[in-house]
Amino acid sequence: MEYNRRKFISFLGKASLGTAIIPPFLKFCGNTNTSISIEEISSDHLRYLKNLPFERLSASNKDDLLLAKGLEYHTLIKWGDKISDDDNFGFNNDFICFMPLDDNNLKDGLLWVNHEYVNPLFVSNFNYRNYKNPQQHRTIEQVDKEMYNVGGTIIRIKEENGKWQIVENDPHNRRITAKTPILLNWDTPIKGKTRVIGTHSNCSGGITPWKTFLTCEENYDSFYGETEYNEKNIPSHIPSWYGWENFYNYPPEHYGWVVEVDPKDGKAQKHIALGRFAHECCTLYELKDKRVVAYTGDDKNNEHLYKFISSKPHSLKEGTLYVADIDNGKWLALDWENQPVLKNKFKDQTEVLIRAREASKLLGATELNRPEDIEIDPITGNIFVSLTNNYEKNDFHGSILKIEENDGAFDALKFKATTYKAGGEENGFSCPDNLAFDLAGNLWITSDMSGSKMNQEDGPYMPFKNNSLFVIPRYGKEAGKVIRIASAPKDAELTGPWFSPDGKTLFLSVQHPGEQTTDLNKPTSKWPFDQDNIPKPAVVAITGDLIEKFNKLNQIEE
Ligand code: FEO
Ligand code: CA
Ligand code: CA
Ligand code: CA
Q: What is the CATH number of the domain that holds 268?
């Protein structure tokens, strides 16, 4: 049966149509946030969802992308594939976001894909494991290859006969790399520049109500290092792992930001007002007056959770950045003008934003166990935050934190925080990372157990085997349980889950398969099993009855 837009909107709730929280094409898309109440789902729909039949997948250490019964996949694009005569798909794809070119045709649009980092063994033919200080043994040609393979890709895709395909050489197809010039959305230059070179470390991201992509610079210190300050406030440079600063003299302060990309022309800007740290993601909510609230976490041990509230419609520059005091349920303003403790330490608001971690600690923000992806529950409006783990604090399995803003107001300055679900053997998952709600409000989770610790005898991750994709059904006998839906190839992580607007396809990144490889002739993984016989990160399109059942599409009649 053909997917029916009108009926589907009515399923999600008529009330949601009146509150323009997200672009029209996303109103019926579970990737982001529209508030609907449970009463708006009819009893027929609820009965259907409660009786949803499915079989869970067992944990596996097989070198393959395994899917639960009722699902199949095809590889949409993989590392090195041509997107145009000039450009190729980058390495280690992560966040995925689909945007139709025309709201009246949801089967034709632009896919944004992050390329987070590179494995030099594959990308620049450099076996870093042979060197104690790999950054001292590189050539500029190798570094240039690495710089090309991070950033992001915009590619046009179309669905024809039920199968999504890339449109090679479409004029929209382009790469953003570590060499792309990018403007700073800020009035004060940073390290003397208003325009900087490149983006990298692009982990997860988000989407704006004005139809642009957000890509977040996470472990930026790996590429150009970091500036650290001693107790006398004297700065020093901490070298990076990749050592790019030995070839290009770009300051660390130009990285660690949320970057916005215009899908139509690829123009990018870095949003200084959202602070500088290891941004995992940036999840936006549009208030009725068109101001926006942006949630973003700092994925590092003992760092923080932030939210930005704009003071002007659709601005990611004018407004206030807050950091969470979880223990007292308060958002603390990172506001130089009105916080004496910040005025004493930093010279201006720009410095507060560049050194957001230090500023947050001065305000007494709560240290968290690596806040990663953030999603807003489309039915309750609660905010879910993955806390991956904190090995040093013996939190091996992480948890999912639930934030309830006071009176459900996203611009509230007080909230309640509780643990929604703890990782561990009892709940059947460990190290939650990416989150996505589907069209019916089921929560999908990917895991990120580190490649070096997975499948280790006597290690905490042995029972979970390979990284996986899970779903927590909202309704029925299995409601609240964590069900494994996909198992990743060896050493890989499944990232960037994103549903197509019709809910029939789940786009998913398979990132860093075979990452533990030490010898290219003996890779630990060969997925996706192409003619090159080496592992390649790739984006897959998962389809099948089970996805449609979860999204409840085959019950929607004319
Ligand atoms: Fe790149 Fe926080 O995962
Ligand atoms: Ca991640
Ligand atoms: Ca997400
Ligand atoms: Ca992660």
A: 2.120.10.30
